[in-house]
Amino acid sequence: MTKAKKLFIKTYGCQMNVYDSERMAEALGAEGYSQTDDQSQADMVLLNTCHIREKAAEKVYSDIGRLRAFKQENPNLKIAVAGCVAQAEGAEIMRRMPLVDLVVGPQAYHRLPDMMRRVDQGERAIDTDFPPEDKFDHLPKIRAKAAPTAFLTVQEGCDKFCAFCVVPYTRGAEVSRPPARLLSEARALVDRGVRDITLLGQNVNAYHGEGPDGAWGLARLIRELAKIDELARIRYTTSHPNDMQDDLIAAHGDVPQLMPYLHLPVQSGSDRILKAMNRKHTARMYLTLVDRIRAVRPDILLSGDFIVGFPGETDADFEATLDLVRQVNYGMAYSFKYSARPGTPAADRAPVAAEIADSRLQRLQALVTEQQRACQTAMIGREVNVLYEKPGRMPGQMSGKSDHLHAVHVQDTDGKPGDMVRVQIIEASTNSLAGRLI
Ligand code: 5AD
Ligand code: SF4
Q1: In this structure, which residue's CA is closest to atom 16 in ligand 1?
Q2: φ, ψ for residue 242, nearest 5 deg
Q3: 52 lines ligand 2 (CB under 6 A)
Q4: Is the CB of 275 under 6 A from ligand 2?
């Protein structure tokens, strides 16, 4: 009997990559690969990469370099590069890195088993096509590891072309999956114990899946998902402000399963910079939108993304960003120093001096951290629902997420993953809350 082959996957970047890594593991599982957490045991190492900022992309090359020693020790070791670096720089990876056996772009994952067969015969394989067929129709049906939370990709790609962003090039044009498919996958997930589903898309609220009676928007999809018994929580990410339609805002007010957490990146608070970024909205439009969402769901926790040091950003532009952050009061936010990405419109524009961008990043992060802390501290004394995901770090503890996506740990010797419990928050630390069973 041949021994089962072992697959080690390293996932970089966003949640969609996490989802894709699971799908690729399933596709390769059908080829006899079982997953391992120990890279030294692997017959195949798959790097599912991210190209969003320079640092993320560079890390991939250093990680490939580090695999050289393993390949010398085990010449049968197969090395595969997937994801957005594969899409953007696949040919270059093949040229510069002879130890890489396989390069596959995000829209060609369903061809992975075929490619592996060629690799097993000693070939090197590359596929960075955007094939017309839907890869999800050709991947094995979701097996879903036993877990109470799951991602579900409903939409992929982006047509917005923000001037800094590689996504429209690496993930391609915006495509929505049909609602019937998504509803049946969601039901299958729930049948396997999933109680919290996060709908994924690079531009998820632009969702427009073709149903039997015309195109469905995200709000309609959410309303249908909410009819699935036992599906306690629905979330979605990432949204563009310009695609927050009235019916989606309304859903936040009247669909109890739709959780009070919304990731709504704005990138900058300066209209001049927003224009240069090709965001097609102003700071005022964003603030008005925030008010409308809070009007239907006052306790919603808003999270955001910011870029500092975008080409042309002045002190006054940056102050406008700080102002916007103060007005919105985020529960959570991610801020990044602008990183020029080859092939994007902003890549040739004169950069802001690195020291200036660094100091702006520090100031913004300090403000955001202050808001995050205040938001966590304000939870003390409140009663919240927690969906247990795994045992906590201390004996007898369980940990999970609140409706607002705060990590909460609870002393509960009888708890198990998948339980939904009611707790009172008794303590807030930097990264998590402590709750007591009610
Ligand atoms: N430089 C810095 N940050 C970027 N992002 C996207 N492209 C870049 C870039 N070139 C950030 C945006 C986006 C998040 C996923 O990454 O804030 O919302
Ligand atoms: Fe990139 Fe998001 Fe802009 Fe699309 S909307 S180009 S994914 S930042």
Answers
A1: 52
A2: -70, -15
A3: no
A4: no
For the domain bounded by 383-437, which CATH number is listed? 2.40.50.140
Structural element, H or E, at residue 44: strand 44-49
Question: Average per-residue pLDDT in the chain?
Answer: 95
Per-residue pLDDT, 2: 56
Mutate to test the pocket of ligand 1, among 15, 16, 52, 364 (most ligand atoms within 8 A of CB): 52
pLDDT above 90 covers a percentage of the chain that reads 93
Q: Is 158 in the pocket of ligand 2 (CB under 6 A)?
A: yes
| Residue with the two structure tokens 């240069």 | 276
Architecture label for domain 145-377: Alpha-Beta Horseshoe (3.80)
Contact 14, 128 (CB under 8 A): no
CA of 158 to the centre of ligand 2 (A): 6
Report the alpha-carbon distance of residue 278 to residue 168 in Å, rounded. Answer: 13
Q: Is 5 in the pocket of ligand 1 (CB under 6 A)?
A: no
**Which CATH superfamily hosts domain 5-127?**
Methylthiotransferase, N-terminal domain (3.40.50.12160)
Rounded Cα distance, 255 and 259, in Å: 9
Query: Which residue spans of the chain are classified as CATH 2.40.50.140?
Result: 383-437
DSSP helix/strand/coil, 151: strand
Higher pLDDT, 143 or 320: 320
pTM of the model: 0.95
pLDDT, average across residues 251-260: 98
How do residues 56-79 score in pLDDT, each as one tens digit?
889 999 999 999 999 999 999 999
At 396 the pLDDT is: 95
CA distance 281 to 269: 10
Q: What per-residue confidence (pLDDT) applies to 102? A: 97
5 CB near ligand 2 (under 6 Å): no
Burial class (CB in 10 A: 0-12, 13-18, 19+), 427: middle
Q: Is the predicted pLDDT of residue 170 greater than 70, yes or no?
A: yes
